[in-house]
Amino acid sequence: MGGEARAPQIRDPRSAGAVKRIMVAGGAGFLGSHLCELLLARGHEVVCVDDLSTGDERNLEMFRDDPLFEFVQADVAAAPSLPVDAIAHLASPASPVDYERIPIHTLRANSLGTWRLLDIARERSAALLFVSTSEVYGDPLVHPQPETYWGNVDPIGPRSCYDESKRFGEALLMAYRREHGVRANIVRLFNTYGPRMRPSDGRVIPAMISAALDGTSLPLHGDGLQTRSFCHARDTVAGIAHVLTDPDADGEVLNIGNPAEITMLQLAHAILAAVGGPGEIEHVDKRPGDPERRRPVIERMGVRYGWAPSVALTEGLEDTVRWFAALRKAGLGAPIAVTAGTSASATPS
Ligand SMILES: NC(=O)c1ccc[n+]([C@@H]2O[C@H](COP(=O)([O-])OP(=O)(O)OC[C@H]3O[C@@H](n4cnc5c(N)ncnc54)[C@H](O)[C@@H]3O)[C@@H](O)[C@H]2O)c1
Fold first, then answer.
1. Is residue 169 within 6 Å of ligand 1 at its C-beta?
2. Which pTM was predicted?
3. Within a 10 A sphere around the Cβ of 41, how many other Cβ atoms?
4. Would you kindly state where each structural domain of the chain is located, as residue ranges?
């Protein structure tokens, strides 16, 4: 019988009400703080665990006094075992500038940090959502990248501390799920941008916006024909929240990103347009290990949750430029120091 495929059922976990208290590891960072904000707005209790190594307490200011919010300053590898229904693990440096400066910290956050959170999830019967990355696909030989692609990763290059520790974290999650029955899910984020990124974090959008606001030339690595796809933080965090608060999600691996692919040269022009005014582009050396192409296949998120990105790049860049400009006006644009030794995690143990 050639039976018809059943129409996929879109789950809406917001009506389920099963998840009430959520630990957000890495909640003081760019994406973590957006996630805390969204979860609090939906009435969840949030415990943010962060060592502030690449994050910033100012990101928590707007909900610091919310009685549903708690902040614990700690290394994720030594996170306290609190009674929670769900855990989101975002505690890892995410920008190449950060993780190339503190590679051991990065390896530890995604390995021993993930290990610790899995033990807490097991003890507390909580679900764990590991926030992984498109970097697990490395310099992909398959384009665009579906979740079934196993990747093309350099295990010893300068990015390996990030790529391989995320891959280890994913493997550990699946082992805990198989051996201990921990409810565990993975989201693989593709490039995300938006307000609360650090101007100095080295990622392409902050670097180009900062240069455009300074009136200096925009740095373009290599010939600028390498492509990326950029998802606005609002869309990314909405996708994360779907999976995190879904009481039925178990063993999911889901790409979250925006499939609209552009070259870095096109991005530079879009940023100049968003900032307004003339600007120049300066070609600088290509970063070693920089992938040529990146674009997510996002059908799984669409089928499971009816999720798709909704913020267009022009709108998202304008929003981000406004935030960077406001930061400067307030005199808060100073770089945040990222140093080895900000936490015990810098020391191999
Ligand atoms: N932003 C992106 O485009 C992107 C893309 C793919 C994946 N991700 C993933 O999303 C997560 C958040 O990224 P982000 O862009 O918000 O980065 P971020 O650096 O702004 O945030 C990371 C947060 O984790 C904290 N942290 C780091 N190591 C820690 C440790 N050992 N213990 C406790 N806290 C620790 C930092 O202080 C910071 O607040 C990361 O896991 C990253 O791998 C982000």
1. no
2. 0.90
3. 11
4. 21-261+287-333
In contact, 333 and 327? CB cutoff 8 Å: yes
**Which residues contact residue 332 at a Cβ distance below 8 angstroms, ignoring those fewer than 6 apart?**
58
Q: Does domain 21-261+287-333 have CATH number 3.40.630.30?
A: no
Exposed/middle/buried for residue 331 (C-beta within 10 Å: 0-12, 13-18, 19+): exposed
Q: Which residue has the tokens 């610091």?
A: 64
Task: Specify the residue for token string 């039925």.
Answer: 248
Look up residue 187 and give its two tokens. 């989201």
Nearest CA to ligand 1 atom 41: 90
Q: How far is the CA of 98 from the centre of ligand 1 (A)?
A: 10
pLDDT in tens, 52-87: 999 999 999 999 999 999 999 999 999 999 999 999
Q: Give the closest residue (by CA) to ligand 1 atom 44.
A: 94
pLDDT of residue 292: 80
